[in-house]
Recover the amino acids of this structure.
């Protein structure tokens, strides 16, 4: 997606200039290549997006309970029919929305170690865990 890196830089500028957030409180996971083959991590966070958010926000002692947390995702999104994955009549209704991490494997690949999309259900679990450990001051923007 063109413009994502620029948008991240603009958001960082807004946070530091307008909201006076210290730069060392801002962490980014950015791919410098449109294909996602080269991942440039511009912070000390671990690799996979899910691990990044659950581990970092949940365990970082510098983030205190009640601090404001902003999660800002720019990238591709996807959706899947529940019927493709669930056989139960109630569970197979509707769709599962997902965000696509930069290091994801194509859906058609089933090789070991592939990185799946992050479903809305999984993302909800992440936000619940962050809120449980750090409080309810979470702003989440998904630009998919």
């Amino acid at each position: 997606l063109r413009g994502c890196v620029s948008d991240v830089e603009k958001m960082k500028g807004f946070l530091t200039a307008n909201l006076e957030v210290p730069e060392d409180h801002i962490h980014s996971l950015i791919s410098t290549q449109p294909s996602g083959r080269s991942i440039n991590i511009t912070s000390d966070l671990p690799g996979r997006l899910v691990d990044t958010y659950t581990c970092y926000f949940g365990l970082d002692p510098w983030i205190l309970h009640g601090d404001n947390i902003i999660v800002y995702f720019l990238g591709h999104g996807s959706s899947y029919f529940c019927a493709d994955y669930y056989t139960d009549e109630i569970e197979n209704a509707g769709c599962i929305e997902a965000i696509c991490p930069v290091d994801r494997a194509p859906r058609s690949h089933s090789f070991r170690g592939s990185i799946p999309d992050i479903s809305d259900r999984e993302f909800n679990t992440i936000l619940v865990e962050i809120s449980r450990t750090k409080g309810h001051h979470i702003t989440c923007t998904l630009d998919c």
Q: What stands out?
A: The first strand starts at residue 29 and ends at 31. The longest helix spans residues 120-134.
